[in-house]
Design a protein that fits this description.
InterPro entries: EmrB-like, MFS, MFS_dom, MFS_trans_sf. The chain is mainly α. The chain is built from 17 helices and no strands. Helices cover 75% and strands 0% of the residues.
Length: 487
């Protein structure tokens, strides 16, 4: 049984290294958006390259995050976590030194691999190391400090872009890793490493990532209108069906199909797909709108986003407590509708938009909607399966959210009619943004309708989330098994 106490020196070291590790991956999910216009100008990149700068990272992270948790169980959680931190730092160094867009995209894909190794490992180390009496508080502190990192990320990213340059958005990860990895080796106890039965679902992970890659490529390159793009899209869909077939017939699947026999679990994941597709599209285009059209600096655009993460940090726990009392149906219905209203309010953001009058009201409404829905969504996911599979359920939900954001970043510019150089023209981008926001709002309304029709009250005594303090925007918080099992 794990016996490290939170108040002990070792407990504080464990908390520090897991917060540093998870913050590295969380920051890169948010701050890169702020740097996109400057990256595009410096590397002479078109809109498709900017989409890939975001999506290359999300693709490998979403496709491999479940496998990353399993690797920790098999070979040791500390070992895999440290490998992930070092891998992430080296990939970040390549990003910072990239001479052109193609190299940056390739390095971003490598970053996602590192993120898939360290993201589930950070929570798993807490679950496996701390004494049961301290575990919930340790998870809460880890979640809270990680949320603070997510909140200040866009601000720091904007400051770096306007100051020493966008490359430092990536290079900053190197000194963080130089602190994190040695602390982990010296102070974090090893756990796991005993699960020698079964086989890794490498084929399933490969097919899932390949399907996402092919579909994403087809959506981003669709404006070219070539027959090859259509064939690649069809191949992506076929690969997706192959992934489902493989998962149904493997003895140890990465994503066991029987977990979707729970109607509640399936419904909440459909809500997740709708909600996080809208979020992914909004935060990709929103930061561009503030800089390209409204004329904000990178620092001002990053600072403008603080209300959403600030509200998440302050009120997520209270929202979770309220959902415990009234059930998840109302929060999962009202939350997406508030977010949809916030995105429609963003239509007021145009040339020379005033922050207090035009931008802030939209972000406050959006933040309130996110506060309302994120904690209940996580609680409902965990309550939909047996306790022994809670970590797996959370990992699937997190991967679904990241995949939804990935597809949205690829598809939304296409649907909104953005050309390759749209971000270089304020008028063209503003017109496309005005077409994109109602689409995002429509996705949120669809999520609200699904929740209202399908989500029912939770059974008494069901498992509640431990990560109630949450400031992340890219995906719901990961939740591990109480015993430190697989994510």
């Amino acid at each position: 049984m794990p016996d490290v106490r939170l108040a002990s020196p070792q407990g504080k070291w464990i908390l520090l290294t897991t917060v540093l590790g998870s913050s590295m991956a969380m920051l890169d999910s948010t701050v890169v958006n702020v740097a996109l216009p400057r990256i595009g100008r410096d590397l002479d990149a078109d809109l498709a390259a900017l989409q890939w700068t975001v999506n290359a990272y999300m693709l490998t992270l979403a496709g491999l995050i479940l496998l990353g948790g399993s690797l920790g169980d098999r070979y040791g959680r500390r070992r895999v976590f440290v490998v992930g931190v070092v891998w992430f730092a080296l990939a970040s160094l390549l990003c910072g030194l990239a001479p052109n867009a193609d190299m940056l995209i390739a390095a971003r894909a490598l970053q996602g691999v590192g993120g898939a190794l360290l993201t589930p490992g950070s929570l798993a180390l807490i679950q496996a190391s701390f004494h049961p009496d301290d575990r919930a508080r340790a998870v809460g502190l880890w979640s809270g400090f990680g949320g603070i990192g997510a909140a200040v990320g866009p601000f720091v990213g904007g400051w770096l872009v306007d100051g020493p340059g966008w490359r430092w958005v990536f290079l900053l990860n190197v000194p963080l890793a130089l602190v994190c990895a040695p602390i982990a080796v010296r102070h974090v106890p090893e756990s796991g490493g005993g699960a020698r039965h079964g086989r890794f679902d490498v084929l399933g992970a490969f097919l899932g990532a390949l399907a996402l890659a092919l579909v994403t490529y087809a959506l981003i390159e669709a404006p070219n209108g070539s027959a090859a793009v259509g064939l690649i899209g069809a191949a992506g869909v076929a690969t997706g069906f192959a992934f489902v077939h493989v998962e149904r017939h493997r003895p140890d699947p990465m994503m066991p199909p029987d977990i979707f026999r729970s109607r509640r679990f399936t419904s909440v994941n459909l809500v997740t797909l709708c909600v996080y597709a809208a979020f992914g599209g909004f935060f990709f285009l929103g930061t561009l709108q503030l800089q390209v059209v409204a004329g904000y600096s990178a620092l001002a655009a990053g600072t403008a986003l603080l209300p959403t993460t600030g509200l998440m940090l302050l009120f997520s726990a209270r929202s979770g407590a309220l959902a415990d009392r009234i059930g998840p149906r109302i929060p999962l219905t009202v939350g997406p509708l508030l977010c949809a209203a916030g995105m429609l309010l963003m239509l007021r953001v145009g040339e020379d938009a005033a922050y207090v009058v035009d931008v802030l009201p939209a972000l406050l409404v959006l933040g309130l909607g996110m506060v309302t829905l994120v904690a209940p969504l996580t609680a409902t996911v965990l309550a939909s399966v047996d306790t022994a599979r809670a970590g797996l359920a959370s990992g699937i939900n997190n991967a679904a959210a990241r995949a939804a954001g990935l597809i949205a970043v690829a598809a939304l510019p296409l649907v909104a009619g953005m050309g390759e150089g749209a971000y270089r023209s304020a008028d063209a981008f503003d017109a496309a943004f005005d077409r994109a926001m109602p689409i995002c709002a429509g996705l949120l309304v669809a999520g609200a309708v699904i929740a209202f029709v399908t989500v029912r009250p939770l059974p008494p005594g069901c498992r509640r989330p431990e990560c109630l303090t949450h400031g992340g925007l890219a995906a719901p918080p990961l939740e591990g098994d109480r015993g430190g099992g697989r994510l």
